[in-house]
Amino acid sequence: MTYALIIAFDGPAASGKGTLASVIAQDYDLPMLDTGLIYRAVGFLRAQRGLTLEDVEQLVEIARTLDTQTLDNPELRGREAGEWASQVAALPEVREALKRFQIDFAHQPGGAVLDGRDIGTVIAPDAPVKIFVTARAEVRAHRRWLQLVKSNPDLAYEDVLADIRLRDERDSSRSSAPLSMADDAVLLDTTDLGIEAAIEHARRIVRDRRGSF
After folding, report:
1. Does residue 130 contact residue 182 with C-beta atoms inside 8 Å?
2. Alpha-carbon span 49 to 67, nearest angstrom
3. Is residue 109 part of an annotated ligand binding site?
4. Would you say 17 and 146 are in contact if contact means Cβ atoms under 8 Å apart?
5. Which of 77, 105, 174, 211 places its Cα 20 to 30 Å from the Cα of 86?
6. Sorting pLDDT into bands at 50, 70 and 90, what band is 2?
């Protein structure tokens, strides 16, 4: 490998970018970082410690001293943690505190695969491969509902859809590193794609982009 193969997956919640990033990381034997888990961890610890969003200094300290082992906590995958993540991610001070960790991970020898909201635009704008994964809000909400209803049978699809729309609005309108597609990213709309088809599309994009460098 003559250059660092940094592969950036960006996109809104439940678009499938995490699943695709995981598969591609395995394909190329690269380390992978789900950056959403970093924000989920900060949000989780905020709630656990009874802090509010106004406790910015304490939240920044949590971000600066975050232990990567915290990311293995299964509670970070839940619905509440996702909402907490979106809240703390809207704070520029928290985003800045977590920025260096992500940049260092992306630019380690050989490269890495990262998925998030601002990988291709802020964390690794130099990434040779950028994929922006999206899908209609209703489709993303249904996917997320299918995941969450297994552990919460009373959860209504309409509530998940409302959460998805709220997170989309918050992620796209925040002042610091809003969700947006990099100019040189390839769009992958998974609305009408099954998981295997989406994986094949992602693999093709990576192969094509690698071939241009």
Report:
1. yes
2. 16
3. no
4. no
5. 105
6. very low
19 is in an annotated binding site: yes
* Token code pair at residue 50: 């009874």
14 labeled part of a ligand binding site: yes
Amino acid at 148: L
- Flag whether 17 is marked binding: yes
Query: CB–CB of 202/210 below 8 Å?
Result: no
In this model, does residue 103 exceed pLDDT 60? yes
User: Is residue 15 part of an annotated ligand binding site?
Assistant: yes
Calpha distance 7→24 (Å, rounded): 9
**CB-based contact 112:83 (threshold 8 Å):** no
Is 151 strand, coil or helix?
coil
* Adjacent-strand bridge partners of 33: 114
Q: pLDDT of 49-65, one tens digit each?
A: 999 999 999 999 999 99
Side chain identity at residue 73, one-letter code: N
Count other C-beta atoms under 10 Å from residue 31's C-beta: 13
Segment 112-122, tens digit of pLDDT: 999 998 999 99
176 is in an annotated binding site: no
